[in-house]
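Appendix C reproduces, verbatim, an entry submitted by the partner laboratory led by Prof. M.T., so that reviewers can inspect both the input and the predicted structure.
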Amino acid sequence: MTEPPIPSTPTGPAEGSATSDDHGLAETLARETGEMLVEFRHNGFERMDNPWSLQDDADMAAHRFILERLAHERPDDVVLSEEGHDDRSRIGQRRVWIVDPLDGSNSFSSRGADDWAVHIALTIDGEPVCGAVSMPSVGDVASTAEPPDVPVVDRENPVVVVSRQTMRWHGQSLADALDARIVAFGSAGAKAMAVVRGSADAYFTDGGLYEWDSCAPVAVALAAGLHCSRLDGSTPTYNNAQLFAPGLLICRPEMADPILDLIEIR
């Protein structure tokens, strides 16, 4: 497997600022990590590796690749990765990259599944200002470098994507209240991108998410003009001391109030 070359001259932004280079770096890193994982996955299936070993090895390979690139490109920034050790030195830092090297690892290790993703985000003072979500199996990258245009889709019934847990416990109540079609699948990034790309109208989860699960998807969705909030309507913030937060809603703006009202009533 050949890794993409590392550029010889890093460019570093001023502390506390975001530049077009940051947006471009997020997109490039998400794409290149995804390409590496596609090759890793193909080779693993060819060797008939144990699925659990395959996803764990891929997670760590992607984690190391991302950290090496960011150490070269942004040596003064802090990185929080799902696969890394959080020593909390990030607390109080202004520029923090929050990454999920492989979101939806169970799907990654399942032949034919494409609902897995790579998340790369940059937060400044807790705000997700730059982000990219790559869905390598379908060759798609959405990023804040060129914010996506959410297509206008005329549906008789809205489509709401949810986690499997939400489907099990609250799927029917959502469907009844919204007259919606409820669809459950893996990766938080894949579900969020379903809304960004127009194949769904809302992504709702009442389960908990770690910051690396939602940061990049929220950055991209906000840049695309979508509504993003916790289930109490508050705006998600990042680089918090507590990395686990309950609930997330990403949706077309006109669907936010009906869904949040339903949550409050329930």
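The domain at 159-265 is CATH 3.40.190.80 (D-Maltodextrin-Binding Protein; domain 2). Additional entries are available on request from the coordinating office.
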